[in-house]
Amino acid sequence: MASFLRQTYGQRIQNHTNPAAKLLLETMERKKSNLAVSVDVTKSKDFLAIIDAVGPFVCLTHVDIIEDFDQSLVQQLQDLSIKHDFVIFEDRKFADIGNTVALQYSSGVHKIANWSHITNAHPVPGPSIISGLSSVGLPLGRGLLLLSEMSTKGALAVGSYTQEAVRMARAHRDFVIGFIAQRTMEGIGMQENTVNKDDFLILTPGVGLDAKGDAMGQQYRTPRQVILESGCDVIIVGRGIYGKDPGLVDEIRAQAKRYMEAGWEAYQDRVSAQA
Amino acid sequence: MASFLRQTYGQRIQNHTNPAAKLLLETMERKKSNLAVSVDVTKSKDFLAIIDAVGPFVCLTHVDIIEDFDQSLVQQLQDLSIKHDFVIFEDRKFADIGNTVALQYSSGVHKIANWSHITNAHPVPGPSIISGLSSVGLPLGRGLLLLSEMSTKGALAVGSYTQEAVRMARAHRDFVIGFIAQRTMEGIGMQENTVNKDDFLILTPGVGLDAKGDAMGQQYRTPRQVILESGCDVIIVGRGIYGKDPGLVDEIRAQAKRYMEAGWEAYQDRVSAQA
């Protein structure tokens, strides 16, 4: 079975047709970074301060927790994405029927499809969730990640659930660009002796250099474990980088640098490893 | 195995400690209605017009699709809930890790926990999603429904997923009051010869008197099928009642009456049926 895990991010651009997937890989290659920062704060001011401090290559947003959200915040986020050259990924975790997710994605206060290059969804409603989101996002050049696994204790995204998620993704390659998962999905849900022609991007939460977990069921692994051992492509780090005080700009920048270097080193070891 | 399916809604109040579950059952008994109306529209004006026309016993909201949402809309919704005596259920389908859902539930633009008696969540992240939501909702007297099944084609909430969802609910009876499901969950995930002491409320989407489905994977059953044959407690109806034009108040009211009568008749047949 062919593996995409030995290819560089730059080489993998050609494996994709979706504009958001290409943009993601180009940005990773250009910035030499596979670190995505998840900014889970409730105030616009903190949100923008953290993003400006980190200047990540991917910015994961959770605009649904921001209390003073308005469209001017979107404009400021977009300005920062140009200043720092990063991709925007609203971590919305859509999980409803096709008709509803299409409205949640395009409409509401947040109008996510208008400004977020990438978003994600749970496969639990079946393929209709992809059709619903795709009807809105594909014409705008957006990309979707499916949550085929979760990093929390007792998660139900395992076994046949994960396999079905991967099969759903393979059937929608134009819009589904990869997964939120704990490991590479190569070979998952495939019959033996089938040629693997689907290069999916794996973005992985639950990455920490220090903590082992939180009080609410989140469990952590190191960048080396997820990139080198498990074949993931992007490490997602949140509170591990910005801690509890969004005002500590130098500390946040130093932590981001530490994660960025750890993630990139693990990736370099992976692509240069003997097959 | 004892079944709660022969008890009236009024009799079942005593089986619950959660204030939202009691409120729901009291309201059903008082209004003689097991119809929940799901109002999936993007404009405040339409949203309020439909709710005022129907005067449902439960109002399912999707505030995340309303473009002109603000806190005054919440006030108007609450005023209507007093005028028409209904329970508010924001159909948010939370699906993230504990720390994030706690913020999504309490914060953001919508501040759902402040005004929605009931909300729902996918069990896919594991028990931490219940702890996260409970930390916000339980002190406010709110209740949670878990999505243990879905009505869409190819849904992955089946088999062991459904069983685990029910086990998670049994372990959190103070906050989890029931399920979004296609049938009663009595006996699901239980060992044989165990006494069933958990009276869960089953709210069921995908109910239609006319249509068989939509283009985006939703599939429909009749009120009689879901209440009498499958042991569900509440029928959730959306577009089947308000159609495409929120201005047709008389038509909406007539459709709501039709569903309400069909739902109540099926329930009466169930409680009066020979065991």
UniProtKB/TrEMBL annotation, chains A, B:
InterPro entries: Aldolase_TIM, OMPdecase, OMPdecase_AS, OMPdeCOase_dom, RibuloseP-bd_barrel. This is Orotidine 5'-phosphate decarboxylase. It comes from the Eukaryota. It comes from Lentinula lateritia. Belongs to the OMP decarboxylase family. Its EC number is 4.1.1.23. Transmembrane segments: none annotated. Keywords: Decarboxylase, Lyase, Pyrimidine biosynthesis. Pathway: Pyrimidine metabolism; UMP biosynthesis via de novo pathway; UMP from orotate: step 2/2. SUPFAM superfamilies: Ribulose-phoshate binding barrel. It catalyses: orotidine 5'-phosphate + H(+) = UMP + CO2. It is an enzyme of class 4 (lyase). Residues 34-254 form the Orotidine 5'-phosphate decarboxylase domain. CDD domains: OMP_decarboxylase_like (cd04725).
